[in-house]
Amino acid sequence: MSEAVTHPAKFRTGLLASLEPLLREWLPRQRWFAGKGRPLTGLTPVAVTELLPPDARLGLYHLLVRAHQPSALGAPPHPGDCYQLLIGAREALPPRLAPALIGHLQDGPLAGRTVYDALYDPRPADVLLEALRSRARVGVLRFEGEPDREIRSGLVPRLVTSEQSNSSVVYGDTFILKLLRRVVPGVNPDLELPLALAREGCARVPEPTAWIRADLGGAAESYVLGVLQPFVQGAADGWELALSELAKGEDFTAEARALGRATAEVHMALAAALPTVTLGHAQLEPLVGGMRERLEAAAQAVPALRPYAPGLRSAYDALAALAAEGHTWTAQRVHGDLHLGQCLRSPDGRWSLIDFEGEPARPLAERRMPQPTLRDVAGMLRSFDYAAHSVGPPAPGWARDCRNAYCSGYAEAGGTDPRTEPVFLRAYETDKAVYEVVYEARHRPDWLPVPLSAVRRLASPDTP
C-alpha cells in the first residue's frame, strides 16, 4: 500500500481539535459507544495514522482516541475508554455515503472537507484488506496473519449494517473483518481463543486468517484492533433463526440439541488447548462477591430491580454455602458472552461459534480468567428465554423445551449435563439476568420487561 505516516503531536492535536466538536456529537449516537448516559467531556489522541497519501482526493485517517467522561457516582476515576475510528475526508460526500456523515470541518489540517465514517466506503475498506494481504506496517499499525493463509485481492467489500457492538465488513463471500471499536491493551480473547482452537483442530470456530494490531510500545501497549476470518457463506444467525421458527410455531429443539453439542465440543477443545484450574471456597468467594456487587450496583441503577434483590441474592448465597461445604469445580477458558446471536448455522446444518471477545463492559483481565463452563451454558439458556419473550404472546414452553434439549446435547458431546449443577447454574443465570436488566435500561428501555420476567422467576425461592 502507499506510504502512510503516524503524524507528530502537532498534527494529531490540530486534527483532533478540529474533529472534537463533531465527534462529541457523533460518538454518543453510535451503537458501540459504551459511555451512554454520561456526558462526553473531551477527547485526546492516542495515535493518528494516515492511510492514504496526503495528495489523495480521498483522505483516510486511522484514529485511536480516548473519550473522557465523568465517573459513575461512587466509582473510582477512569482514564477514559479508547475507541478505534476510521475517518474519511472528502471535498463533498456523495449521496450513497450520507448515513456515514460525521460533519464538515471549518478549521484545522482538513479545513473545508467533509468527514465521515470510512467503513461505509468501499475504497477505505479496500485499503484495509490490501494492508492485511501484504502484511503491511503503517506507523503504529501492524497488519499480521498466519503465514500460510492467502488473501485474494479484488474482493468487493460491504459493511454489515445490522446492530452490533463492533463493526464488520464482508469481502465478497470469502472473508469477514471484525473491527473492534472500544479497544484495550493486552491479549484480546477474540483473537487468542480462535487461534488456540484452530491449533487444537476444532472446526466449530472460524480460524483467524489475519489481524490488525496497534503497537504503541511493548506488549503492555499493544492493542488488537481487528480480526479477519473466513465468511460462512449462507449461514443463518442463531438469534434470527430462532425468532423465525418461533414466528412460524416450529419446533427448535433439534437445533438447540445440536447447538449444545457444538458448545461442548468447543469447551473440550479449549480445556485441551489452555490450562484449567480448580475452584474451591477461596476461589469462589471473590466470584460470588463480584456477583453480589453487580446486583447491588444494578439495583441502585434500575429501581425496577430492587423488589427482587433479596430473592436474587439468595441464589448467590446458595452457591457460597456449597463452596463452604467443600465442593469444588473446574474452571477453564470459555466464550464469555455466549448467546444465540454468537452462533451461526451453515446451510449444511453445522453450528459454529463466533465473537470470543467476552462481555466488552468487563475488564480484559476478567474476560481472560478461567471460568466454569456453566457461565457459557447459562448465557445460552438466557438467550432461549430471551427469544421466547421477544414474541407476542411469550412462549415459555418453547424456551423450556429448548433449554432442556440444549443441555441434553451438551451432555451427549461429552460434557457433564449442566442440569446436575442447579445451584451453580441458577447463580450464573441470575448474574446474567442482572446484567441484561442494566443493559436494557441503558440502551433499549422497551426491552426491559424481557429480563425482568427472568428476574421474577430466578428470585423465587422455588427456583432450583
Distance between the termini: 59 Å
Overall, the morphology is: globular
What is the class of the largest domain in the CATH system? Answer: Alpha Beta
Tally of strands? 18
User: Which percent range fits the helix content?
Assistant: 25-40%
CATH superfamily of the largest domain: Aminoglycoside phosphotransferase (APH), C-terminal lobe
Write down the Rg: 23 Å
Order of helices and strands: HEEEEEHEEEEEEHEEEHHEHHEEEHHHHH
Low-confidence sequence ranges: none
Strand content: 15-25%
Number of helices: 12
CATH architecture of the largest domain: Alpha-Beta Complex
Mean pLDDT: 92
Tell me the number of structural domains.
2
Strand line-up across the major sheet: 6-7-12-13-10-9-8
The CATH topology annotation of the largest domain reads as: Aminoglycoside 3'-phosphotransferase, Chain: A, domain 2
What does this structure look like?
- The protein has helices at about 10-25, 120-135, 190-200, 240-245, 255-275, 280-300, 310-325, 365, 375-390, 395-410, 420-445, 450-460; strands at about 40-50, 60-70, 80-90, 100-105, 115, 135-140, 140-145, 155-160, 165-170, 175-180, 180-185, 210-215, 220-230, 235, 275-280, 330, 345, 350-355.
- The chain has about 475 residues and is an alpha+beta fold.
- It has two domains: about 10-230, no CATH class; about 235-460, Aminoglycoside phosphotransferase (APH), C-terminal lobe (Aminoglycoside 3'-phosphotransferase, Chain: A, domain 2), CATH 3.90.1200.
- It has a seven-stranded antiparallel beta sheet, with helices on one face. Strands 1, 2, 3, 4, 5 and 11 form a six-stranded antiparallel beta sheet that branches. The chain has a three-stranded antiparallel beta sheet with strand order 14-17-18.
